[in-house]
Amino acid sequence: MEKILEVKDLEISFHTFGGEVQAIRGVSFDLIKGETLAIVGESGSGKSVTTKSIMRLLPESNSEIKGGQILFDGKDLAKLKDKQMQGIRGKDISMIFQDPMTSLNPTIKIGKQIMEPIIKHQNVGKATAKERALELLRLVGIPNPEQRFQQYPHQFSGGMRQRVVIAIALACNPKVLIADEPTTALDVTIQAQILELMKDLQKKIDTSIIFITHDLGVVANVADRVAVMYGGKIVEVGTVDEVFYNPKHPYTWGLISSMPSLDAKDEALYAIPGTPPDLLNPPKGDAFAPRNAYAMKIDLEEQPPMFKVSDTHYAATWLLHPDAPKVEPPEAVKRRMKKFLSEQEGK
Amino acid sequence: MLRYLVQRVIYMLITLFVVVSATFFLMKIVPGTPFNSEKLTDEQVEIMNREYGLDQPVPVQYLNYMAKTIQGDLGYSFQFNNTPVTELLSERVGPSAFLGFQAMLVGTIIGIFLGVVAALKQNTWVDYTSTFVAVVGKSIPSFIFAGLMQYYIAVKLGWFPVMFWEGYEYSILPTIALSMFPISIAARFMRTEMIDVLNSDYITLAKAKGASYLQISVKHALRNALIPVVTVLGPLAVGLMTGSLVVEQIYSVPGIGEQFVSSILTNDYPVIMGTTILFAALFVFVTLLVDILYGIIDPRIRLAGGK
């Protein structure tokens, strides 16, 4: 279990006209070599900010890493100079973005865009870079790569563009690949194709993936481990099995209950009540407490630490404290847990 | 591409035809006659009118004029001793075009540079300086710069000639005065576009590839930011090339702007028409040039026009 990336107590703030927004409030996680770690959570929970900070892609003008470390290869990425960071981006760590329609440069040919990181990081000539780029296009399943190489982004469909973005990300065989909601902007059939492609690619090339999504169905499909984020913190982390079959945090329960399910007849789709916390003035206690049906007095006063459930499974909820009353997950969660299990056995 | 060009040239000719016809009739609506000198008797005026065909009904005059124009004959000036209009224009168009072209070149290059730098150093003193230059250049008319420079730089310091048109050094002050406007337009547009582009997803992707600051600005951002800027600069270029009357007057440059105004004042019909044709032709030509330039900068447009 070699750790390739370690994030420790990361704190990130944005300086806005309204004041300091504490977007990330002490996030820690490890990425193990060869695994896919999914980060899930609703909009504004800090998923993208966390991963963008690993790449140091947050706008310099108004964001600040206030504390913590991002350890990669013995270096703290949070403290690297711009120049050093340029040597890591695209080579050791690369990223797939959310919207393929806007993430390619409209005035540069696809081939050139793929060749760029290869020439930059691998010190090879144009001919070699082109060969490698064509190979990548084939790898991500783009037909007629020679012809496609000469085309511009507008001549590609959304799904094809995302394949190109993936090809760019994989150009230098990165050790860490960050996929920031890579399927959100695509329609459902293309989503499935892209997910298949990513699973397939991970087998072929040896890379660790951080997969950001708010779609739990996707998580079950691609991830080995899951980290659930809420209000700028990780509230539960564990293997996919642990988080899906034995969720401990009420927020995770809420997420699982609000998944639409085909066989849930006559059952209103659950929605977590309330709104996400205002990180301009973060709550004193557990950020989820105001929306939590199981909240106790202490939830409003003190932030829960990470309680250990197993060696790989942790959750930040006072319900796991030895003195807390025993609480069963809601019915909807139990039903889904049962269904996951039966599906698992069916496979 | 060829088909597209042919199609565009046909459109250009239609545009020219419409402009020329409209100008012809508008010009005839304006009261007055080219021959209103007090020295001329009524009889003499009548003879002159007959001589130049001005006694005929306007539609006939129009047909005659068009027929000659198609053959390349723009007629003779009433005002300048019967000089052919083509000769008159070709003498005058040189200095104006030279000044305009030079001012445009200087203005665009400096303006784009200022805009790019301002965008890259957003909200720093560099940005504020660039904004200040642009606001000054846009809000103060070029003749004020022309007058000030003429007095302080030419008369007081004696670095450049005060006026006339006798060599390259004579073009420098008028060029600076004329370039202030394109500088400010280019700088403002460029800054806005550049900031827009720098915040786009594909710039983030370029950063994520490990591209350096310089590579990102030059290879990825500049070209995309140029697209809208080209639109405004095209028509501006025509305006400058066909002369800025006041600046030409201040520096006594024998340009086309000065002549255009005097021909309107004296109802010198052939010269008015000739100048209009020249301006209109230049305008449609530059428009075509801008459209072709678009295609070079932006592949999405190239395809749409090229099929």
Concise synopsis of the structure shown:
Chain A has 347 residues and is of the alpha/beta class.
Q: Report on the biggest sheet of chain B.
A: none
Order of helices and strands of chain A: EEEHEEHEHHHHEHEHEEHHHEEH
CATH architecture of the largest domain in chain A: 3-Layer(aba) Sandwich
CATH architecture heading of the domain at 88-268 in chain B: Orthogonal Bundle
Measured as a percent range, the helix fraction of chain B is over 70%
Structural class of chain A: alpha/beta
* CA gyration radius of chain B, whole angstroms: 24 Å
Q: What is the percentage of strand-forming residues of chain B?
A: under 5%
Give me the CATH superfamily of the domain at 88-268 in chain B. Answer: MetI-like
CATH topology of the domain at 88-268 in chain B: MetI-like fold
Q: Can you offer a commentary on this structure?
A:
The complex is a heterodimer of chains A (347) and B (307). Chain A is of the alpha/beta class and 347 residues long. In chain A, 35% of the residues lie in helices and 22% in strands. In chain A, the strands form two sheets. In chain A, strands 6-7-8-3-9-10-12-11 form an eight-stranded mixed β-sheet, sandwiched between helices. In chain A, strands 2-1-4-5 form a four-stranded antiparallel β-sheet, covered by helices on one side. In chain A, strand 11 and strand 12 form a beta hairpin. In chain A, helix 3 crosses helix 4, helix 3 packs parallel to helix 6 and helix 4 packs across helix 6. Helices cover 76% and strands 0% of the residues of chain B. Chain B has a domain of 181 residues: MetI-like fold. At the A-B interface, helix 2, helix 3 and helix 6 of A face helix 8, helix 9 and helix 13 of B.
